[in-house]
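help with this record:
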Amino acid sequence: MRIAVTGRQGQVVSCLIEAACKWPGLEVIPLGRPDLDLTVPSTIEPAIAAARPHLVVSAAAYTSVDLAEDEPELAYSVNATGAGAAARAAGELGIPIIHLSTDYVFSGDKQGSYVEGDATGPLSVYGASKLAGEQAVIAANTQHLILRTAWVYSAYGKNFVKTMMRLAQDRQELSVVGDQWGSPTSAHDIADCVLHIASRVTSDASFADWGVYHLAGHGEINWSGFARHILQTSKRQGGPFAHVNDIATADYPTRARRPANSRLGTEKLSAAFGWSSPHWQEAADAVVASVIPHLTKVRR
C-alpha cells in the first residue's frame, strides 16, 4: 500500500513515517514544498499523481492560530483551497482521502463532548479556515474521511508537551490556563489510527462509511492539569520539573479566541473502524519518556 501525505515535517507525517516500519508492504510518501505547495494549486495534482498512491492523507496545514488572525488569506489558501485541491486530485485518480481537521471548528459552548453532528461555530480565523477545508474536501471527493482531532502533541515538532518540558528546564514555576478543557491526542496514535483506517478502506471494495469522524485521546483534562501531569511524569523519569499554577483564560490574552471546551466524542470512530485511542495519560507518558533524552539540559 502506498500512501501519499501532504507535508514533510509535521507531527503527523513524522509519526506516519515512523509507524510505517511496523506495517509490511507499506510505503509512506511525504509530499511538500516545492514539489507540492498548498498555496500553489497547480503543483498539487502532478505531485500526487507522480506518487501513484492508493490513498492520500491530507495532513499539511497552516497551524499558527494567533498569526492567522493577521494572515487570513494565507490560512484559507492552505487550509481551505489547498485541502480542496488535494481532495480533488485524489478524486481524479479515483482514490480516497483522509483529511485531518480540528476541534477549533467548534465554539466550545457545549457542556459535554462534541459529536460529529453538532453545529460548528469557529471562534478564530484558523478554525474557520479549517472548517472551510472540510467543506472543500467533501465537495471535491466523495471518498473522503475527515478526522477532527485536538490538542495534538508528539516527540516531533513544536507542541505543548515539548514546550512545558523545555520551559521547566529554566523555571521553577509555570502559569497555565485552567479553564479550557479537551482531550490531548498523541500524533503517534493519530498515525496508528490513520494507517488502520487506510488499510481498511483500500482493501474493502464495499466500504461506504465515508464522512466526518472524531479522533482524540481517551479522557479529558484542562491545560494546567495536562501540564502538571507532563511535568510530574518527567520528574519521575529523571527529566525537568516545575510547579504549575492555574490561571484563567482572561489572564493570558491571545490574538485568537480558543474554545473553552474541546472535548471530542469518539464513539462513531470506534464503532466504524474498531479502533480506540489509549487514555491520554498513557500516551503522554510515552511521549515524555521519548523527549527527555533529547533535552539540552535537565534541571531537577
Observations:
- The two ends are 46 Å apart (CA to CA).
- The first helix runs from residue 11 to 20.
- The mean pLDDT is 95.
